[in-house]
Amino acid sequence: MTRVVILAEKPSQAKAYAEAFTVQQKTKTYIQLKPDATFPNGAIITWGVGHLVELKEPHDYKPEWKRWKLEQLPIVPDRFLEKVSKGKWDQFKEVKRLFQQADVLVNAADVDREGSNIFYSILRLTGVKGKPIQRLWINSLEKEEVKKGFQNLRDNEQDLRMFDEAKARQISDWMVGINASRLFTVLLQKKGFGSYLSIGRVQSPTVYLIYQRHKEIENFKPEPFYQIEGQFKAEAGTYKGLAEIKEKDKAKVQALMDKHGLKEKEGTPGIVQKVDKKTKHIKSPKLHSLSTLQSVANRRWKYTPSQTLKTMQKLYEKRLVSYPRTDCNFITNSEFNYLVNNLDGYQKAMDVSFTPVSTKPNKRYVNSSKVQEHYAIIPTKTVPTQKKLEGLSREERNIYNEVMATTLAMFHGDYVYEETTIWTHVQELPFKTTGRRDVKQGWKELFPKPSKANQEKDPLLPNVQNGEQVGANLHIKESMTKPPKPYTEGQLINMMKTCGKLVDDEEDVEILKEVEGLGTEATRSSIIETIKAQKYISVRKNNVYVTNKGIMLCESIEGTLLSSPSMTAKWESYLKKIGSGEGSKQVFIKQTSQFIEKLIQETPGLIENVNIRDTGEKKKSWNEPIAKCPACQTGTVMDRYKFYACSEYKKNCSVAFPKRLAGKSLTPNMIKTLCEKKRTKVLKGFKSKGKKSFSTALVLDEEYKIKFDFAEKAGSKI
């Protein structure tokens, strides 16, 4: 009997797989499937909880590496090891037991390098070796696709290469983060910096690009410029036009007016010299990758990139859309065929009706050669019922409608408009006027109408004729140059993807194009969330601003490769080579080590000229006294990093208090109150083992242990 054990990335994914088969038994840690045609002896699906294991921390290798000291750098273990992530030990033990009992293992984590990393990192830590491994490779969680995927499992050759790529990325990011963060922080703290800097291979150049925009805005000096504007009155209505001159010097504009014998505000006759009308066709937008969807959602609904990804993940798990973390805008003929078959159903779901212009594949959207691991984001074969659509949250409905509309647009007609250019001559000085008129909405009728603020700026023009005489009032128009605008979060995603435009070196530009900029489709939103959490940027009214802390980071890394998108692009390019079997994980890690050595040598000189700024953060000081020890009365209770304890803790006093109790963080003020008054007021936010919230006062018993006191009434004071 062949025992098959399948590892999903997380419980929701495991549940979706199980629903494609018949379940025999469900437990907290795995789902057992009944025997069927796909699994003649049944199968067991277990799961990680995202990353069930992680790289060890520096102090896990050497206790002295816990302290941030320059003389300990570089911190590079001889061999990088994993450990079980905090709070995930029970699940890991079950996965290990199931792996040990299995005859065949199936990696059914997400089809990307991190999915490979999750599976093989867990496998490595279990110590299980020599068992055949197969790979599930699907883009949809629909029952039919799941079954088909398990019936056509791949070997793990590519999976192992992707694991090498992911592990090289993970180890190198660990090395850069640990060493660079400590190096810059300690050097700046010697200059009086009261906080710490977190530095990363991708997050730091991202902050630096935002900082560059900040500098452009800060250094911008508005300048006036002058144009000649004409207000024209024709028989069919009025319109405006501009002469083709734009000068900083008003005298030059006035000279042109004088040359043609023109005066401001004077009613001078003009003549319509030429009316040029062109009909233009705009094809429907390309199918969505994650980043294009994030940009649209941010522009239209102000959703953050992270919010869009989370919403897409929910829709994916509800089997309504294909795999969300894709960087591809194309589909293959296979997907196109099922879309054609479901066109009527999709239109009914969207409450729209149109006759498809064509049901033949168009290379603008359908191109198998452009599809690698994942195709573009499209609806699945599952056409949702009205009840299912009504059950979606507002965010889910908005995002689903956008995916559906973009997909249906592929079958709709072009958006057609007429562009009109009027040339009006006044005393032989030509004025140009442009405007547009919608001819056919085409695919645009599938999308929400833009707000007035976002509508086309080109005005609707009156119907004028060649040779028609018009009244003209002219004036010299003064305008001011405007600074660049801050990035929005949606633009930040695009900026990360296309930062090659900001790089001068042609070779680097090509590499950035190849790897599509900073980060990957799956990680960009989390990078933005990370630099927000580190307080390097703030977001106000959807605009991204660099903070004092972010400015100080950028001033510190300026001139190093840590500020350069090119560095991370070259790394990403080599990582891709590891994934394709052309590069070596060992070479990559060695190069990272050499980079860190160089950084340690060069940074002290660079830091000398950095101005220390007030970041509004307080430096965390461990071992600061909180209260007199209630037991020994000679020591003081202190923050000991992972717990609170008496300063005599290692000598003759055993008083210690946890940092967290029943799911709630205990603050230094709470500990101080307990030490001095033996009782707190009623506190909210505790959670029972059954995850139910409760409130209670805390008391210190005779053995100096913290106990709950439910008798204390809510709201009572100490």
TrEMBL record:
GO cellular component, one term: cytoplasmic replication fork
GO terms of biological process kind: DNA recombination; DNA repair; DNA topological change
Alphabetized Pfam families for the sequence: Topoisom_bac, Toprim, Toprim_Crpt
Annotated ranges, domain Topo IA-type catalytic: 159-600
Keyword line: DNA-binding, Isomerase, Magnesium, Metal-binding, Topoisomerase
E.C. no: 5.6.2.1
Catalytic reaction(s) noted: ATP-independent breakage of single-stranded DNA, followed by passage and rejoining
Molecular function via GO: DNA binding; DNA topoisomerase type I (single strand cut, ATP-independent) activity; metal ion binding
First-level EC class: isomerase
Gene3D superfamilies (UniProt xref): 3.40.50.140, Topoisomerase I, domain 2 (1.10.460.10), Topoisomerase I, domain 3 (2.70.20.10), Topoisomerase I, domain 4 (1.10.290.10)
PANTHER family named in the record: DNA TOPOISOMERASE 3-ALPHA, PROKARYOTIC DNA TOPOISOMERASE
Family: Belongs to the type IA topoisomerase family.
Protein name: DNA topoisomerase
Lineage, highest ranks first: Bacteria, Bacillati, Bacillota, Bacilli, Bacillales
